[in-house]
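A reminder from the course coordinator: this example appears on the midterm review sheet, so study it carefully.

Given structure:
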C-alpha cells in the first residue's frame, strides 16, 4: 500500500480557478497525441505551435512605427477641422484624457472611448486628499459614468488642469441652460 504525503483532495476545476474553462475567453489549445509504439508526435507538434506564436507577435519597433503613423494621419485629418478653441490634455504612463471641440476622449492602456458633447451629461473632477491622482469622471444621460485617473508629477498641476478643463467645458459643453 502506498502512502502519499500531501492533500488527498482533487484540484478544483471551474472558471474561478481557470479562465480557459469558459469557452470563448481563450483560444482552444491544440492537443498533442503521442504514439505509444514510436513515441513520435502525430498532430499539432510543439514546434509548429511555437512558430505560430512567433509569427503572430510583431516586433515592438514595428508597432511603435505603426502607432506614430496613425497619430500623424489623425493629426493631418484633425488640422482641417480644428477650430481655435481651448483644448485640455493630460496624460501619464497609462492613462490619457483629451477634451476639445470634438468631445472627450479617455484612454487607459489599450482601451479607448470617445464621447461627443451631445452624449455627455456632466463632467466631474476630483483630486485625492493625499497623493497625486487627478480623477475625471464623464457622466452620460443614461446614468453611466466613466472615471479615469491621471497621476500628476506634482500636486501644483491640479489647479492648472482644473482651469484648462473649465475653459474647454465653458466653450463647448451645453448643459441645457440655453434650452429653458
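Designed residues:
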Amino acid at each position: 500500500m502506498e502512502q502519499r504525503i500531501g492533500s488527498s483532495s482533487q484540484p478544483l476545476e471551474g472558471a474561478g480557478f481557470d479562465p480557459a474553462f469558459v469557452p470563448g475567453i481563450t483560444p482552444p489549445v491544440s492537443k498533442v497525441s503521442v504514439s505509444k509504439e514510436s513515441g513520435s508526435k502525430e498532430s499539432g507538434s510543439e514546434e509548429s505551435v511555437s512558430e505560430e506564436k512567433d509569427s503572430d507577435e510583431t516586433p515592438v519597433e514595428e508597432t511603435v512605427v505603426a502607432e506614430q503613423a496613425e497619430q500623424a494621419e489623425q493629426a493631418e485629418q484633425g488640422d482641417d477641422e480644428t477650430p481655435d478653441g481651448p483644448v485640455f490634455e493630460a496624460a501619464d504612463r497609462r492613462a490619457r484624457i483629451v477634451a476639445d471641440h470634438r468631445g472627450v476622449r479617455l484612454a487607459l492602456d489599450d482601451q479607448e472611448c470617445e464621447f461627443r458633447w451631445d452624449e455627455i451629461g456632466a463632467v466631474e473632477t476630483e483630486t485625492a486628499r493625499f497623493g497625486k491622482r487627478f480623477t475625471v469622471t464623464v457622466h452620460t444621460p443614461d446614468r453611466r459614468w466613466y472615471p479615469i485617473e491621471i497621476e500628476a508629477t506634482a500636486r501644483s498641476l491640479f489647479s492648472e488642469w482644473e482651469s484648462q478643463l473649465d475653459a474647454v467645458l465653458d466653450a463647448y459643453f451645453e448643459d441645457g441652460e440655453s434650452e429653458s
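DSSP finds three helices and nine strands in the chain. The first strand starts at residue 33 and ends at 34.
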